[in-house]
Each structure stands twice: as C-alpha cells, then as structure tokens.
Amino acid sequence: MTSSSSAKTDPTTTAFQEDRLVAVAAGIDVPSEVHEQVAEEQPVLEIDSFNLWYGSKQALHGISMPIPERQVTALVGPSGCGKSTLLRSVNRLNDLVQSVKITGDMRLNGDSIYDRRTDVIELRKRMGMVFQKPNPFPMSIYENVVYALRIDGERNRGVLDEVCERSLRGAALWDEVKDRLADSALGLSGGQQQRLCIARAIAAEPEVLLLDEPCSALDPIATGKVEDLIQELRGTYSVLMVTHNMQQASRTSDYTAFMYLGRLIEYGPTTEIFTKPILRETEAYVTGRFG
C-alpha cells in the first residue's frame, strides 16, 4: 500500500506523465521518441550517447541519433536547446572552447570523430560547413570555389575548372556568375554569397554537409533560392541542418529532430513530425503553441 501511494505522488513520475518538457526543465532524464523509419535508413553519421559541458553547465544530454545518408535532416527547437552546439560538435568546432568536456562519441561512416588518434584537420576535410552569415573569402568567385582543392595541392587547371563549374551548378549559381568568375566574391549579394559558400563546401565532395541556420541573415527571396537549393541537394548529399523556421524544416528536410534544453525529444520523418508526431509536446512546438 505504501509503495502504491508513493508511486502516485512521486514528482518525477508525475512530471514525466504530465509533460516531458516540464520534466526536462526539472532536470529529469526522459527517453527520446525515435520513429522506426529512422533506423531503416543507412546512416552517414551516428551520434552515440553524446554529452557536452561548457564548464559546469551541461549543454547536451545523452544524444543518440543516426543521420541518414543522402537525406536532409533538420534540427529544430527553441533558442538555447543545443541545436547549434550539436551541429558544431560534428566537426569539432567546440574543441576551440577551452572549458568544453564531452563524453560519448560520434562516428562518420564508421570512423570515430572523437577518438584521440583522429586528425581533426583531416576530419574537417570530410565535411562541409556553412554558417548563419555568408563568409566568402576575400578573393575571386573562382578561387573561393576551388579553395579546398588548392590547399590539397591540386594545380591542374582543367580539374579546377571542372570542379568550379560543377559546384556552382550544384549550388544553382553558375548561370548568375559564369561570366564574372574572376570578380571578387564580396561583390555578390547576400543570397548569392551564401550559395557560393555552399558551392565551396560541396566542391570537396563532403561526406556530410553541415548548415547552421543558412537563411537567418537572408531576405525572403534569397531564402527561397537557398531552400530550393537544399531540396536539390537531397539524394546527392547528406545534409544536417539547424533551423528556427518550422516552415523551412517542413519544406526542405526528409527527417526532423525536435530538441529541448539539450535533449532529443522526438525524431522521425518530417511528414510525421509535422502531421502526426508521437508526442503532444512535439505537436505543440511545430504548430507554434510554444517556443
């Protein structure tokens, strides 16, 4: 009798049953809801029980999720939920923060990202990264695109020309810039600069392309062009993208992961996350009732 009574009044159980997000805010670990379809995909990236601290503050809590190959996966959630921290952990940009500590692992096509023997420079060559604000190098459009090949020692002009054209076509930018490849990239519009950064990222044929809110600094027209580009990249590249924009996630991604306060809450096919999620907390977020 005592046992039954204590179960009813246990605040952990009550918080979990009433609202997972309340439980998370109270520091209670709750299981992630991962849809079956996710496990059926071939992963390009596997995130395994990944925890991260900034000093004494834990920013990521036990994240485990596979990122499907040749699909677009969106990370969504309120500001401060850990989306960008998780994304930046994939290419170990958080290594640059002195107080960072991690446990768990990530694997890129089976290779441990956090193994002590991993060469971080070589690891980053296997990934493309595009940030919130376009950051073209202060050089020509052409040299921006072929930069990764140049630093790897490629000097064959034919190879460089081919990669430049292929990458700019892949970034839906070739027709706009083909007659001014020698011009400074800094003269392009913001939307063109962001597509140039995507062209620069895909020139090296990355195993995974990381996009950290790629449209947040762009106007609606430029945003539409970048979204169209992301849709064109699906099926060819494996894309992991952070976005605050629910409509953008629903339009451009194949899979969506909802995060809250450093935890993965629900992860599944985008159509299901937006139309029939398992959790009412996910439904409340994607429909705009909170966050």
SSE topology sketch:
Elements: H1 2-9, H2 11-18, H3 20-25, E1 33-34, H4 36-40, E2 43-54, E3 57-68, E4 72-76, H5 83-90, E5 100-108, E6 111-112, H6 120-125, E7 127-130, H7 141-145, H8 147-151, H9 157-170, H10 174-177, H11 190-203, E8 208-212, H12 220-233, E9 239-242, H13 246-252, E10 255-260, E11 263-269, H14 270-275, H15 280-286
Parallel strand pairs: 1-11, 4-9, 4-10, 7-8, 8-9
Antiparallel strand pairs: 2-3, 2-5, 5-6, 10-11
Helix pairs in contact: 9-11, 11-12
Q: How many E strands?
A: 11
Main sheet characteristics:
7 strands, mixed
Quaternary structure: single chain
Could you say which overall geometry the principal axes of the C-alpha atoms support? Answer: globular
Cα radius of gyration in angstroms: 21 Å
Rounded mean pLDDT is 91
Structural class: alpha/beta
Helix-strand topology string: HHHEHEEEHEEHEHHHHHEHEHEEHH
What fraction of the residues are assigned to beta strands by DSSP?
A: 15-25%
